[in-house]
Amino acid sequence: MAELWQWVLDHGVVVITYIFLAIDVILRILGLVVVPRNRRPGSALAWLMAIMIFPLLGFPLYLLLGKAQLPRKRREKQKVINRLMHVRAHDIPDSELDADSPSWLQSAVNLNRELGAFPLTGNNSADLEIDYDTSLSRMAEDIRAAESEVHVLFFAMALDTTTQDFFDALAESAARGVKVRVLYDHWASLTHGSVYRAMRRHLDAHGIEHYPMMPVKPFRDGAFQRPDLRNHRKLLMIDGQIGWMGSQNLIAAHYNKRANIRRGLHWQETMARFRGPIVSEMNLLFATDWYYESAEMLSEADLVQAPVDTSGTYECQLVPSGPGFVFENNLALFNQLFYSADRRICAVSPYFVPDESMLAAIVTAARRGVEVELFVSEIGDQFLVFHAQRSYYSELLAAGVKIWLYRAPTILHAKHVTIDDSVTVIGSSNMDIRSFLLDMESSMMVGGTDFIQKMYDVEDVYRSRSRQLTLEEWEQRPVPMRLLDNLCRLASAVV
């Protein structure tokens, strides 16, 4: 044994080299066996390329970020929630669609229910708000009118000069005996530093119960947890009668970041304010996230309230999605609507990085004569995603898709789709792989001619603030920029 050890010491460089080569080969073989299982081909190829080029780095990263799966305890809670929702969904039939609704809209409703969405409800009303400060002011006004409960859930939350009135409204309502519950994504809010801490101190000072969602505690569940699974929803419900949802976070329009302020960046949002039976469904979705973080199961009797206002004419269906669901609910819904469109598609997404199926659906729609418009920002705030989405522009433009670039220095952060004159989907979901696989999202499918017209009016505003990108202009961009876009596209597939 001593002689063997001495030989190892004498030939250390050779031994280390062979060990390194053995590990290198083993990791490559493990990658070929493990990575392709139950994974879309593009993602599998991207991971395999990373592992084959840098096995000592790529394989550990795959173990860290390779599975879009909730922690075990959360999966167990998700099963409980799914069983309860299935029982409730069985007992509550969908509302009847209007007689003039296209046949494919009923198919979309059925698809959503199969994937875990809430029932279609009728007699809802809704309006839109696209001014950043006005939406915050209106939400604060609704909170101040609360009588029993306020439920708040936002991806990013902070107490700053822009949101001060909103948090003051929460404190005033809590002081009047209104039950206020607050949820916010841990990482998305924590990264804002002092204004995040100010928010927590404010909530604590006024006795408001609050929890961070998806807390970044890698080994909290006794096993490693993927740290970039986030809750991206934005919801506000008051007394089960008024519900807000859309794209806006509860933070200043420049996100209090020095780089954004220096560049003059600020965010353009779209929020929808609902009244009617759909608000109870929004309350139920909030209750699922509340259960995940607090372990408190809120009673259905408290969450589902008889609507005071049933004068509306909109049919609404709430569609949750995220890693807690077996299928990619939001992607399935978008694709079904794109293939069903007969005349017109308008898609608004700040981060547009479609998978192969969505790209095919959009290109096919454009080539069969559907007028397709895509609104994106002229500049981006996320380097990788911004350049990845640009890699799709050539194919989209060649197919006849009209691409509108919302002018800098504004980031168009709104997220919604309109199909023909029939249906709108609005909510928190981007059209990128992160929103399809990694983020917990909420989308609202709305049917109603009047609401469609409101969306058209919003799209007209966007159009007036944008410039149209042409294929000729795009094909003249520098070769290095094309290479960068394509490289980022490849990297974006690693999920």
Automatic annotation (TrEMBL):
Organism per entry: Brachybacterium tyrofermentans
Transmembrane segments: 12-33, 45-65
Stretches assigned to coiled coil: none
Positions of the PLD phosphodiesterase domain: 227-254, 408-435
InterPro entries (alphabetical): Cardiolipin_synthase, CLS_N, PLD-like_dom, PLipase_D/transphosphatidylase
Gene this protein is translated from: cls
Membrane topology: Multi-pass membrane protein
Protein name: Cardiolipin synthase
Record has Cytoplasm as a keyword: no
Keyword Mitochondrion: no
